[in-house]
Design goal:
Largest sheet: none
Order of helices and strands: HHHH
Oligomer: single chain
Distance between the termini: 45 Å
Mean pLDDT: 83
Low-confidence stretches: none
Structural class: mainly alpha
Number of helices: 4
Shape: flat
Length: 110
């Protein structure tokens, strides 16, 4: 049975509790992701260390292939943004022409 509280106070308490629970879940998921990543890296390193030199080269080639695929997918995603390619070209031209502003000159402490 739920506690009877004056209107408003209970809603705020529930909202605070839900917000705190959401923060807890996000933090917990991030920790779990980092732990899973660390475990995967440790397992991969262990496997790589016991491979023969020939198979290690094959594994390295495969990892390079996966990295290239991931980079190509990211590039394709950027190129699908309307106007991105033209804006990028303009930015490169401006940088090459010295039309830049130092980050320190425009940075705001937030």
């Amino acid at each position: 049975m739920s506690e009877i509280v004056p209107a408003g106070r209970g809603e705020l308490a529930r909202a605070d509790t839900l917000e705190a629970f959401g923060r807890f879940l996000r933090l917990n998921c991030e920790k779990r992701r980092m732990t899973n990543m660390s475990l995967a890296l440790a397992e991969a390193e262990h496997r790589l260390r016991i491979l023969s030199p020939e198979r290690l080269r094959v594994a390295d080639d495969f990892l390079a292939y996966l990295q290239e695929r991931e980079e190509n997918e990211a590039t394709a995603e950027l190129l699908n943004i309307p106007g991105f390619e033209a804006a990028f070209r303009r930015a490169v031209e401006q940088a090459d022409g010295g039309e830049v502003v130092r980050f320190e000159d425009i940075r705001r402490d937030v």
